[in-house]
From TrEMBL:
Segments forming domain SbsA Ig-like: 51-127
InterPro entries, alphabetized: Glycoamylase-like_cons_dom, SbsA_Ig
Domain spans labelled Glycoamylase-like: 325-540
Pfam families in the record: Big_5, Glycoamylase
Organism: Lacibacter cauensis
Protein name: Glycoamylase-like domain-containing protein
Amino acid sequence: MKILVRYCLCFLLLTIASCKKKAAPPVPEPPKQVTLKSIQLNGVDFSSLRYGVNLQPTIRLQFTQPLKPSTIATAIKLYNASGTETGITTSLQNNDSVLLVQPSAALASVARYQFKIENGLQSASGGLFIGTVDNTFITQIDSSRKFPAISDDELLTKVQQQTFKYFWDFAHPTSGLARERNTSGDLVTSGGSGFGVMAIVTGINRNFITRAQGLQRMQTIVDFLKTKAQKFHGAFSHWLNGNTGNVIAFSAKDDGADLVETSLLMMGLLTARQYFNGGDVAETNLRNDITALYNAVEWSWFRKSNEQQLYWHWSPNYAWDMNLPIRGWNECLITYVLAASSATYGIPKTVYDNGWARNGAAGFVNGAQYFNITLPLGSAYGGPLFLSHYSFMGINPNGLSDAYANYETQTRNHSRINYQFCVTNPNGNYGYSDSIWGLTASDIPNGYTASSPSNDVSVIAPTAAISSLPYTPTESMKALKFFYYVLGDKLFKEYGFIDAFSLKQTWFASSFLAIDQGPIIVMIENHRSGLLWNLFTSCPEVKSGMRLLGFSAPYL
């Protein structure tokens, strides 16, 4: 019996042991998913757009799980603004849960970069990365000097000479007139050509070309305007074909006379007339032809029905449909000055007072303070800076006043307000400073706008600060030197400074515009010598016209 019991117990134990050996193996744990705990760029949170990043930054990512090293290279990416992958190096820390990412080489300055985690990143256990990382940063300005140091006087000459090429080398080969922009082909601009004529005078004065070369180009221009260019009651269109002289419509109904553009053209021509004062037949004939072109403009006819104001446009197809009175304060003071100066189709002072000045009504007269600077005329903060440039390329504002304002104060304070707005930078636009300022009409990304403190889209136009040199010499020279020495590799090209740029948007124009290049070379010269001011205001007609309108100045 005892033997039987022992046998049964042994059989039971063997059965139990056998059952244990046949039990199912334990189920392995599933791969653990990985998420991002934090991301830093140079030790600072990188959850939003970052500006001013150094050229060799470090991105630190902390994850909830250790990473599988073999999955990093295909998932961690850095791209430049054009979508091209930028080389990086990576290293793991903290038991492979912290990833450090650095560019393999120094990044470009003032450039946009996109850091991404793409598909494929895994935890050490094979779990997928859950989440989205698509962050952007913009690199800092490279403060190194891009060109050798030269004296300020030499720098002004260099900028003038390079800008002069736009009006000399790039002028239309048939008419000699200025192309609207560097992509315009046969399309030339009448107002910009007036600036170009003043640039030619400056070029001769600075020995960029000879007087004989300048005279020959002026003869080409004036002959084209006299014999080929379409005219409407003596006025020219905004745009025309540089080969044929036919109008190119500026807009649907703007296919005829543009009195403001005509006045900018005449300002340049009269300036040239005063410069080419030789007694030989060629210069005498040039002067006579310019006077004839000016006298043929029927300024008074643009009062429409003898109204007490001038109108901007007239079309042979749409008559007065544009219906735009020329009223101040804006860039059109020159139009009323030349209209009043005309010996053939002049206007009385009442047209100036009622039309241009609106008898001192609000909108023309201002008087408010901005940044503790009083603005005599115009809209809030003064508007775009070209309002203080175009007319005053020929009209000298120094010591000039009338019943409404002191124009030396007006132009100086307008520029100072524009400067202070950029320095104060209420909109937080990256890059604005006492060296990067100037808001005016220019190209912008995907368009064109009249930038001003009231319309600030983060775009700086070099012409704005540089052309204000006569008004804000210290502030403008500081900007010019920064544009040239520090940003020159991006801004200073074959025709001088590009039209505009935005550090916030990492955008640099590829364009040059006649109406922006012209004020640069001319206003630098007015700052240096007063040449164009002295020539234009020496015109007997201009002296009489400005006195008629009630202006007083030492030169009148």
